[in-house]
Amino acid sequence: MTTDTPERRVLVLAHTGRAEVREVARACVGALFGPDDPTYLYYGPDLTRRIAYLRAPDEEQQADDRRLTTILVKTDDYQDAQARLRAAGWKLDPQSLAVTVATRSGGASVASCS
After folding, report:
1. Which residues contact 44 (CB under 8 A, 6 or more apart)?
2. Cα dihedral angle (84, 55, 30, 66), rounded to 10 degrees?
3. What does the domain layout of the chain look like in residue ranges?
4. How confident is the model over 8-24, as a mean pLDDT?
């Protein structure tokens, strides 16, 4: 069963285009996408969501540095990164053929997208 966290709701709502709650629209999330992918879709309807773009193969260290608990991963291009995240304890939840949401438990820390 998938944990329904605010970060996960943000990503699913962004991907499906449905309306979203304003407070979760500002969540900071990580992203592993290619340069030609339409990532603007994940900034939310009013473009307030913050996204930290990560680079493979050290995506988990970058996520740790930024205290991220959620990463959007382009499903078909980042199989190795998904395997590394899974091995490091991240839960992977495919949302569509295009995007997988990777989540992990986080503390009380606030993620940084800077």
Report:
1. 10, 14, 20, 25
2. 90
3. 6-103
4. 43
* Rounded-to-integer distance, Cα 86 and Cα 73, Å: 12
According to DSSP, the residues that pair with 30 across neighbouring strands are 52, 71
List the alpha helices (DSSP H) in the chain.
6-16, 22-25, 59-66, 79-87
CATH domain 6-103 topology: D-Maltodextrin-Binding Protein; domain 2 (3.40.190)
The set of long-range contacts for 47-50, using a CB threshold of 8 Å and a minimum separation of 24, is: 49/10, 49/14, 49/25, 50/26, 50/113
Asked if residues 97 and 57 have their Cβ atoms less than 8 Å apart, the reply is: no
Tens of pLDDT, residues 28-42: 889 999 988 888 888
